[in-house]
Amino acid sequence: MTDRLRVRWPDPTPFAGREGRPIRILAVSDEPDPSLDSPATREGLGRIDLVVGAGDLDPTYLGFVSDAFHAPLRYVRGNHDVGAAWTASERSQLPEPMRDGTVVSEAGLRLIGFSGSPKYNERNLQVSSLGMWVKVIGAWLGASRARPVIVVTHAPPRDVNDDHDHAHRGFAAFRWFVDRIDPPLWLHGHTALVRRGIDDRIATHAGTTFYNCTGSTLIELLSPDSPAEAHVE
């Protein structure tokens, strides 16, 4: 089942020429959504402007979703996105993942991403606390100049939609980052909803909506003057 989220976007620029239509993003992470296998379901979702991946999904699945909706794909890698499925030949049909801390443009929007999870053992795609601080501080100036941006990460910020166990806690560096660039929307995965409950997928802080997009979520960005209300379903 595809969840739905509406967020008001503060910059009118991406909406020029859209005649009031929202920018529609399909965000996916961690768990494939079997409902997307159905052509009828995909038709019911309608036109998608951008597919965003927040990690821990097989590259063939990411390619399928992007191709099925005829939409560009931007994604980060999760801590489990390693091994045979992620060799150059297997992901040759995908664009490169977003480089950590580098602002990219797609569908009239600016995005910045960070792959991996906090380090909890010596396996998979994990980043030490110090390593993420280095990445975040290095990205700060560029992200500040590009505001507003959508932030896409695999792991959440510390104490925002994260879990208390060592493997699923968030990055403290992300808390510092959000207070300096004020992103309207922060998408992540990593923390399973089965442990937290479906109502715990969203949090807000100082104008930022943090959203756990495990599974699939249709996100509609509303123009600043849109009469529609932001909400989650």
The whole-number mean of residue pLDDT values reads 89
Query: Which strand order does the major sheet show?
Result: 5-6-9-10-12-11
Q: Which structural category fits the helices and strands?
A: alpha/beta
> How do the helices and strands follow one another from N- to C-terminus?
EEHEHEEEEEHEHEHEEE
Q: What overall form do the CA principal axes indicate?
A: globular
By DSSP (H or I, 4+ residues per run), the number of helices equals: 5
Distance between the first and last residues' Cα:
11 Å
Calculate Rg over CA atoms.
17 Å
CATH architecture: 4-Layer Sandwich
Fourth-tier CATH superfamily name: Metallo-dependent phosphatases
Beta strand %: 15-25%
Ranges where pLDDT stays below 50 over 5 or more residues in a row are: 194-198
Sheet bearing the most strands, described?
A: 6 strands, mixed
CATH C-level label: Alpha Beta
CATH T-level topology:
Purple Acid Phosphatase, chain A, domain 2
Count of discrete domains: 1
How many strand segments? Answer: 13
- Fraction of residues in helices? 10-25%
Word description of this protein:
With 233 residues, this protein is of the alpha/beta class. It has a single domain (3-222), classed as Metallo-dependent phosphatases (Purple Acid Phosphatase, chain A, domain 2, 4-Layer Sandwich), CATH 3.60.21.10. 21% of the residues lie in helices and 25% in strands. It contains five helices and 13 strands. It has helices spanning 39-45, 59-68, 129-145, 172-181, 193-196, and strands at residues 3-8, 23-29, 50-53, 73-75, 104-106, 109-114, 117-118, 126-127, 150-153, 185-188, 202-205, 208-212, 215-222. The strands form three sheets. The protein has a six-stranded mixed sheet with strand order 5-6-9-10-12-11, with no helix packed on it. The chain has a five-stranded mixed sheet with strand order 1-13-2-3-4, covered by helices on one side. Strand 11 (202-205) and strand 12 (208-212) form a beta hairpin. Helix 3 packs parallel to helix 4. The longest helix has 17 residues, at 129-145. It is globular and about 50 Å long. It starts with a strand and ends in an 11-residue tail after the last strand. Residues 194-198 have low confidence and may be disordered.
